[in-house]
Amino acid sequence: VLTSNNVQLLGREELCPATIEVECASGKIIRVRAGKTDETEYYDDRDTVEVLDLGDLVVLPGLVEYVAMTVLPSHPYYCIVHSAHVHLNEPGHTDWEGFNTGTRAAVAGGFTTVVDMPIDSVPPT
Predict the structure, then answer these.
(1) Of 22, 18, 14, whose CA–CA distance to 5 is shortest?
(2) Is residue 51 exposed (0-12), middle (13-18) or buried (19+ Cβ within 10 Å)?
(3) Strand partners, 16
(4) pLDDT of residue 75
(5) DSSP-derived 3-state class of residue 12
(6) Angle at the Cα of 50 (from 105 to 36), degrees rounded to 5?
(7) I need a surface site. Which of 8, 50, 56, 74 has the fewest CB within 10 A?
(8) Buried b (16+ CB within 10 A) or exposed e, 79-93
């Protein structure tokens, strides 16, 4: 069970206190509810349930990588390209980055989805 003062809940614009219950075996979120909890609420299950109070740390939903372009209004001939795709280089160059290391890094960074753009793969994909 995770609880924090600053959770981004679906349908809310502001961060709020909330509690998130996660099934350890599958890693799946089984319940999300507004309001912070403490260990006393899970006292009967204290041998099987761990409550992690994250205090004021921010808890956000998983991120999805994207590619987008923003035109700068002050300079219409310039734009910022937000390119968050990945090059997992598999097959052929897993010594650079492969599905195993690339997806683990994405998860560690909070990403739930990555878009692989094949480049320099052997054979070409």
Answers:
(1) 18
(2) middle
(3) 7
(4) 54
(5) coil
(6) 90
(7) 74
(8) eeeeeeebebbbeee
Q: How far is CA 124 from CA 19, 74, 103, in A?
A: 46, 41, 21
Amino acid identity for residue 118 in this structure: P
The number of beta carbons lying within 10 Å of the beta carbon of residue 3 is: 23
Mean pLDDT of 70-87: 55
Token pair of 37 as six digits: 């909890």
Give the pair of three-digit tokens for residue 30.
């089984």
Banded model confidence at residue 74, pLDDT cuts 50, 70, 90: low
| DSSP for 28-84, written as a single string | EEEEEEES---GGGGGGGTTT---EE-TT-EE-PPEE--EEEEE-TT-TT-EEEEE-
